[in-house]
Automatic annotation (TrEMBL):
This is Citrate synthase. It holds the Pfam family Citrate_synt. Gene3D superfamilies: Citrate Synthase, domain 1, Cytochrome P450-Terp, domain 2. The lineage of its organism: Bacteria, Pseudomonadati, Pseudomonadota, Alphaproteobacteria, Hyphomicrobiales. The keyword Zinc does not apply. GO terms for cellular component: cytosol. Keywords: Acyltransferase, Transferase. It catalyses: oxaloacetate + acetyl-CoA + H2O = citrate + CoA + H(+). Belongs to the citrate synthase family. The active site is at H263, E318. One of its GO terms (biological process) is carbohydrate metabolic process. Pathway: Carbohydrate metabolism; tricarboxylic acid cycle; isocitrate from oxaloacetate: step 1/2.
């Protein structure tokens, strides 16, 4: 054979000598959406510090995140109306679907209901995805309590209607404000595990619903979005002030992790923790819980500094998330669904960004298994 008919394959770039387990410090995407500065304890969302966004509505943050990425530009008021219509559309899908969620954990029920939304029908679906989560999460919560779902009110904002659909009656303004702050606080957060998952799936052109369902599957783990329920379990297990230090010390001695502490990126306090602490402080009925939680937090930080001196471990977003969501009436086993209601903002924006500019995400692995026996003969 001539070299013309059997050309050498083009050279591939050399692989790194070592894999990076956990992909720590690997830059895997460029984004205009958000930046987590773990050394400074700063979260920037499209040019705004989180603290400056915290008083804005969830809809205004959606407008910010979707700007120049969604096919049609929409401002806050248009997004509010579009979400109201999309909640009503979603509610109409519920009757045949809801019974299939019986016996499932709330986050698995949400995954099942989201799977009924088809990538093939129209698109790009970002509004419908954001609208669907509170409708589904509230209906799942009520069904587990033996109650019928409550139809959305198109005229309300997303946070107010979420609580109304959950409780079956209008929520106090202070509770709406606290939930709105929560949804804004968790709306986007760099290339966290669930957002990365969404971008990987979006990069294959599988569609927005497939991408965000994959993201939800990543979110539900206790090392990511599954921690706030266990934070309350921990507070309940400790029970009283005199037991705080011994309880935490024993948990650490058993090699357990204290829920609501530590973060892959933040080496100082997670800025979201203070924003949520502020949100819960405004709720009249949460006072006793907050004082106890603050005592647990102070003791946990002191013990973590003693026992893990080489690793700065600070309070993360999940600690005060637990208090906010409990105070406004969510069941603790449904907290991850409320997280998904907020993070859907970021997931959809990242999917739109990935679909617009991205390339198929396909990293390599380093093979460390056995090699086959050498080939013999020709
Ligand atoms: N309690 C006790 N020790 C901890 C904790 C904790 N919460 N977090 C980390 N450590 C310790 C580890 O045991 C390890 O100690 P070692 O070196 O002596 O073995 C050291 O700190 C480093 O731990 P890593 O696993 O390398 O830290 P990583 O960056 O992977 O962990 C994570 C981040 C998963 C959030 C971790 O801190 C954790 O498990 N926290 C508790 C669960 C939690 O709060 N999850 C919510 C995270 S926030 C979010 O995703 C929205």
């Amino acid at each position: 054979m001539t070299s013309r008919s059997n050309p050498s394959p083009p050279a591939l770039a050399p692989l790194a000598a070592h894999a990076a387990p956990g992909l720590d410090d690997v830059i895997a995407a460029e984004t205009v959406l958000s930046h987590v500065d773990g050394a400074a304890g700063r979260l920037i969302v499209r040019g705004h510090d989180l603290e400056a966004l915290a008083s804005r509505s969830f809809e205004s943050v959606l407008a910010l995140l979707w700007r120049d990425l969604a096919p049609e530009p929409m401002e806050e008021a248009e997004i509010r109306s579009a979400l109201g219509r999309a909640r009503t559309h979603t509610f109409a899908l519920l009757p045949p679907l809801l019974p299939a969620t019986d016996g499932l954990a709330p986050v698995e029920a949400l995954r099942l209901l989201l799977s009924a939304l088809a990538d093939a029908e129209g698109g790009p679906h970002h509004v419908l995805a954001v609208a669907a989560v509170p409708v589904f999460a509230a209906a799942i919560h009520r069904r587990r309590a033996g109650k019928d779902p409550v139809a959305p009110d198109m005229d309300l904002g997303q946070a107010a209607d979420f609580l109304r659909m959950l409780h079956g009656s209008p929520a106090a303004e202070s509770h709406v404000r606290a939930l709105d702050t929560y949804l804004v606080t968790v709306a986007d957060h760099g290339l966290n595990a669930s957002t990365f998952t969404a971008r990987v799936i979006a990069s294959t052109k599988a569609g927005l619903f497939s991408s965000v369902i994959g993201a939800l599957c990543a979110l539900k783990g206790p090392l990511h979005g599954g921690a706030p329920g266990p934070v309350l379990d921990m507070l309940d297990a400790i029970g009283e002030e005199s037991r705080i230090r011994p309880w935490l010390a024993e948990a650490l001695a058993r090699g357990e992790r204290l829920m609501g502490f530590g973060h892959r990126i933040y080496r100082v306090r997670d800025p979201r923790a203070d924003v949520l602490k502020g949100a819960v402080a405004g709720l009249r009925d949460a006072g006793g819980r907050i004082r106890f939680a603050e005592a647990v937090e102070a003791e946990a930080l002191a013990l973590l500094a003693e026992r893990k001196p080489l690793r700065p471990l600070e309070t993360n977003v999940e600690f005060y998330t637990a208090l906010v969501l409990e105070a406004v009436g969510f069941a603790r086993d449904g907290f991850t669904n409320v997280f998904a209601a907020g993070r859907m903002a970021g997931w959809t924006a990242h999917v739109l960004e990935q679909e617009k500019a991205g390339r198929l995400i396909r990293p390599q692995s380093r093979y460390v298994g056995p090699m086959p026996a050498p080939r013999t003969g020709a």
